[in-house]
Amino acid sequence: MSEILKNPYKKFYFFLILITLVNLLQAYFTEITLDEAYYYQYARDLDWGYYDHPPMVALVIKISQLFFNGNLGVRFLTVLLFSGNLFLIWKYLLPEDKASYVNEFIILSLGLVMMNAYSFITTPDVPLLFFGTVFFILYQRFTEKQNFWNAVLLGISVALLFYSKYQAVLLVFFLVISNLKMLTKPYIYLAGIVTSLLMIPHLMWHIQHDFPTFQYHLVDRSEKFKIKYFLEYLPNQFAVFNPFILIPFVILLFKNKYQNLQEKAYYFVSVGFLVFFALTSLRGHVEPHWTVIASIPMMILFLQFIKEKPSWQKYVRTIVLGSLVLVFTTRVILLTDLLPKKLEFTGKEQKYKALAEKIGKTPVLFTGSFQSTSLYNYFTGNESSTLGSLNVKKTQFDIWQREQNYFGKRVFVEKPNTRRSQKIIDENNINFNGFYVEHFQTPNRLKIEFELPSEQLKNNQIIPIMIYNPTKNVVNFNHPEIPVTITAVFLAHRETTDIPTEIEKMPTVLKPGESFKTQIKINTQNLKVGDYNFGITTNCILGNAYNSKFVKATVN
After folding, report:
1. Cα–Cα distances in angstroms (integers) from residue 6 to residues 16, 99, 100, 108, in the given order
2. Among residues 506, 497, 487, 505, which one has the least CA distance to residue 528?
3. Model-level pTM greater than 0.85?
4. Which residues are 365's β-sheet partners?
5. For strand 485-492 and strand 495-503, is the pairing parallel, antiparallel, or unpaired?
6. In terms of Cα–Cα distance, which of 495, 496, 476, 499 is closest to 486?
7. CA dist 188 to 202, 397, 452, 556, Å?
8. How many CB atoms lie within 10 A of CB 416?
9. Alpha helix (H) ranges present in 281-417?
10. Nearest to 499 by CA among 469, 535, 464, 466
11. Cα 371 to Cα 534: distance, rounded to the nearest angstrom
12. Could you tell me if residue 428 is left (phi over 0), alpha (psi between -120 and 50 degrees) or otherwise beta?
């Protein structure tokens, strides 16, 4: 052992083996997270895209399932990608004299909090971090020697980034503006062509599904300015990068200057991500981990600063090393039941198995919670799906439409606060409310088309509508358990107002492929004067569905 610790290269490889084993144990014993259960659903149905993310995270889980079931069936490849990432950084991105600061490399790699979390938790950031390192390596090779194969490999690495997470666009953008002369080199366009060709399947998926991801990230997630979003940004970044690393890193950025194109790229990427998402916080909440890709250039630059100013070596070996106590304490706590159940780090398996024990193999339809659907299926293996509605964000379940498979069947609908709901479980801090439906149906996939004569909506306005059934199932508007009505909906400042409508004639049933034309009259006299987003929806005990487009309308 003493011989290993004396040799910096042996020390690094010993650390790599040790951290891989530790992460495997952590991955095995730490309860699956909400999002991981959702990505597990992705892996059940491999595709070229998903509503929230590109498909790489699904492939990571699918490959893990070739070797293991359970938690390691979700996380095994994640553990290997983290270790592989550290190896690539050490082998290809650090200077030749790296042996002199192997201890600092180990400490920083463990101290960057969120990067460390993705050593055993599977998210789209896992492949993003790995292929981000691959991209930096191939960019360095491309700047040193521009030829056909280096261009092709660079193009492939960019495509792999884009298939991992959409923040990759920013990574490539900041790197390009760090070296604009690169755009004068012919081979860079070959790299662009390779990337474009490889992205065609993903583009075709988006065209087929009306670009749902772009609508979600660029439109649906936009909010009005709230000072709390801006004020929470910096504390969140401390949680991502570790304040004892982030604060001195920013100080050192101002005190030092990049020495070559590679270092310049690291400067632009790390600063670019931090500044870009600080500005983004002015238009809505920024998830802390959106900046995690900056961990790679941050770690490399910090080591470079240590090389130039050895006094920082002591800081890393004392202060940053001391902060690891908190990091490892948190990791240990995740293996226990010490955290409150409401934080949902533990107790999920017990919760959803309790529901399965109560209702048996009856399929469960959750209202408004894609996480509950995913967790229930993951922990029990029983059938479940999410019932989308107007008041919850769309998810991949709106594309899968698995609820269509349960028409006419007995299901349990998990839904609180309705006249039919009853407590199914209320014990040991486990609560489930809902009701059984003997012959299920839902109108949530019907399409309603309309055109307003003008943006000015008058009281008792008459609007022609067409209701169309694009599904494989018959929808019965006079269903004995789930009857369906038509409702006008006004949205303003995230508040929803339903206005009952007078309808000229209601359909009785709509068979697959059938449409029904009628008209409705809207009474707006009780609405406040102002601007709204207006739509027409079906309504039933399951809630308002997202059946029509929403258009701007003014009530005078």
Report:
1. 16, 11, 11, 20
2. 497
3. yes
4. 385, 413
5. antiparallel
6. 499
7. 22, 39, 49, 57
8. 12
9. 295-308, 311-315, 321-333, 348-359, 370-380, 396-400
10. 535
11. 29
12. left
Neighbours of 240 (CB within 10 A): 21
pLDDT tens profile 357-400 = 999 999 999 997 899 999 999 999 999 999 988 878 889 999 99
Write the Ramachandran bin of 347: left for phi over 0, alpha for psi from -120 to 50, otherwise beta: left
Separation CA 392–CA 545 (nearest Å) = 10
Q: What pLDDT, in 10s, does the model give residues 168-181?
A: 999 999 999 999 99
Bridge partner residues of 443 (DSSP): none
Q: For residue 434, what is the enclosing H or E element?
A: strand 430-437
- Name the residue with tokens 């650390």: 15
- Angle between helix axes 8-29 and 72-88 (nearest 10 degrees) is 160
Going by pLDDT thresholds of 50, 70 and 90, the confidence category of residue 409 is very high
d(CA 439, CA 423): 21
CA 527 to CA 458: how far, in whole Å?
11
CA distances, 391 to each of 17, 495, 527, 537 (Å): 48, 9, 19, 12
Residue 343 to residue 347: CA distance in whole angstroms:
10
Angle at 170 between CA 134 and CA 175, to 5 degrees: 60
